[in-house]
Amino acid sequence: MTEISLVDKLITSADQALRTVCGAPRTTGRINPSADVDDTELSDYERHEAGRLMRVNHVGEVCAQALYQGQALTARNKSVQKSLEQAAAEENDHLAWCEQRLDELGARKSLFNPFWYAGSFALGAAVGLAGDKWNLGFLAETEHQVADHLQGHLDRLPEQDERSRAIVEQMKTDESNHATTATRAGGVDLPSPIKDLMKLGSKVMTRTAHWI
After folding, report:
1. Which of 118, 117, 139 lies closest to 190 in space, CA to CA?
2. Which domains are seen in the chain, by residue range?
């Protein structure tokens, strides 16, 4: 098999960035979990709140996509690269589902998406350089925190907004599976200070994306 050059990898990463921020992401072809769920009438407040929460979730998927692309670029082990690329492909499903739901709710994407992507890509590439066990450990911790965050959104979404809830439920299941896969592949448990910094960064992102 021909080895892919660094230049080719960078071109692929640039293409993925443009698709994530400006275009249509490549998905795995999975059906949107809300496809068979009837839309229900929401009050103006409920619709706006659901839109804000789904915008935050969309930003989270933009960041996840960038993280995994950055991590895969600098990962040393081929199997680790494959795990990251598979996770990124499934995150693209989430990205597309969230964007569709935002359109249905009449909400917009975050204006800061290019910034979120660039920062997350740089962070992912740096983590990859630290070594594969840390790369996988970072992936696992990220997914654990995202799953907790999604559970919080399930608690806050209007109970009758079953379409949004179906999407978030499936996302939560996928994130938990990604975390388990990363841990089994050799990911190490990150030190508490790093986990705390990750939570702080996530809090800044979610509070900003809720409104902008």
Report:
1. 139
2. 42-209 (1.20.1260.10)
